[in-house]
């Protein structure tokens, strides 16, 4: 009887609870034992009460809850081998032979490292007398499957990460609220949204709300972005628009790699000197409201279908199978090699850091155009 554990790790995202529910129930449905590891890798390193066997009823109501009810944490110990050694010991002591991890690229990188090291961790635990050869005999191979939970939609190889559509919906709702007051006072608003190195949330929020101007890391503005923005905003105002909405991704940069900040955009919109726009301008940083709240229907569906697929992948895996993650491509739930996706994601970040924006653009799955 297989013992499958599920864990949420890294930044939380709406839909993680739906993942936990789907994995627990599918595991039980397939006649296996389901476990939850609380507080991400920290729980794996701590062991004890952090690892709990789950029944069908334990995940009741999880679909409509935001955040992650089994907790998540950043765990420094797991970056180092001694931490992973303790984690391996705790897994064997609980009889767990497969782990399904829902997290971002960091969590999934850690997962792959753990699986690659697993045989040597087991050998070391026997060699140093912490476990006996009989104890570890059934656990020669660790089976790991990744699920991508992130509001940023920043993992290469999947069309959507679990949580990104919930965050996008939340942003649109907030922009609608802001628009009502902006329009009343004929004001301009600069709205900063999350996304780390990725502009997906900002770009799609711009499309969905009809924003006047959008700044994203993948399309760095050249030195005359100030003039470009002024012209667009002025044109929209001349057409009778009583509000101005500029959306800026937290990772937005110019072509020299310098961050474009909401306050410099505000200064430009509010500029009262000759030829300036002289708009009454406010800044709103949406912050963590983008992460919180319940998951939209799409994320609940994605999490559920992918959770089910993850359990199937675990049950079908052999020791030779490459570590996979569950993606969605053109509306189909598919298994894909994990490390290739993580590598491609890193390449984009490295290219952006090196100011090689053309390369970063070509590596991104999404096509951006002006
Ligand atoms: P995310 O999964 O959202 O990208 P992090 O990058 O903070 O978030 O990763 C979450 C946790 O995963 C870390 O606190 C650490 O415990 C583990 N982790 C991340 N990267 C690695 C790595 N390279 N090796 C081992 N563990 C890692």
TrEMBL record:
Superkingdom: Eukaryota
Residues bound to substrate: 150-152, 187, 194-196, 250, 282, 288-291
Active site (UniProt): 152
Annotated residues for binding of Mg(2+): 105
Occurrences of domain Phosphofructokinase (ranges): 3-314
Chain intervals for the UniProt region annotation (N-terminal catalytic PFK domain 1): 1-370
Compartment(s): Cytoplasm; Mitochondrion outer membrane
Record: residues binding ATP: 11, 74-75, 104-107
Protein purpose: Catalyzes the phosphorylation of D-fructose 6-phosphate to fructose 1,6-bisphosphate by ATP, the first committing step of glycolysis.
Similarity-based family: Belongs to the phosphofructokinase type A (PFKA) family. ATP-dependent PFK group I subfamily. Eukaryotic two domain clade 'E' sub-subfamily. Belongs to the phosphofructokinase type A (PFKA) family. ATP-dependent PFK group I subfamily. Eukaryotic two domain clade "E" sub-subfamily.
Description of how the protein assembles with itself and partners: Homotetramer.
Protein's name according to its UniProt entry: ATP-dependent 6-phosphofructokinase
Native organism: Trichoderma asperellum (strain ATCC 204424 / CBS 433.97 / NBRC 101777)
Portion of the full sequence shown: 4 to 373 of 788
